[in-house]
Amino acid sequence: MTKPQLELADVVRRFIGPYHEQFGHLMLISHHRALQDITACMTEAMGGEHYHCRDCDETFWIYHGCRNRSCPKCHGRQIAQWLKARSVEVLPCRYFHLIATVPSDST
């Protein structure tokens, strides 16, 4: 699998300042945490393990993931598998999603 040229973390890093200025007071704590985790995922900020390859004699770091359920790096594969499993449940026809509110029975 090739690494995408632009990742969600890049977009969040670029726009997090103005976004927080405009909407930070409206965000849930869990949303603040998700954005923080996504920007730190697979970086030095999350810590990692130092490895040495015996074949090529190269030393490198592999950083830890954030494990946040909103992170595409950590859960992208799981999400894709779930969507694939759901796609076989869809009928081969056009359909629409409707939500109707029904008044409660007040008796």
What features would you describe in this structure?
- The chain is mainly alpha-helical and 107 residues long.
- It has one domain (8-86).
- Helix content is 41%, strand content 9%.
- The chain is built from 3 helices and 2 strands, in the order ααββα.
- A hairpin with a 6-residue loop joins β1 (48-52) and β2.
Quick tags:
mainly alpha; two-stranded antiparallel ribbon; 3 helices; 41% helix
Summarize the amount of helix as a percent range: 40-55%
Number of helices: 3
Number of domains: 1
N-end to C-end Cα span = 60 Å
**Residue share in β-strands:** 5-15%
Spatial strand sequence of the major β-sheet: 1-2
Query: Quaternary arrangement of the chains shown?
Result: single chain
- What are the low-pLDDT stretches, counting only 5+ consecutive residues below 50? none
Q: What's the number of extended β-strand segments?
A: 2
Shape: extended
Along the chain, the helix and strand elements come as HHEEH
Give the mean pLDDT.
90
Could you tell me the radius of gyration in angstroms? Answer: 21 Å
The main sheet comes to: 2 strands, antiparallel
Protein structure class: mainly alpha
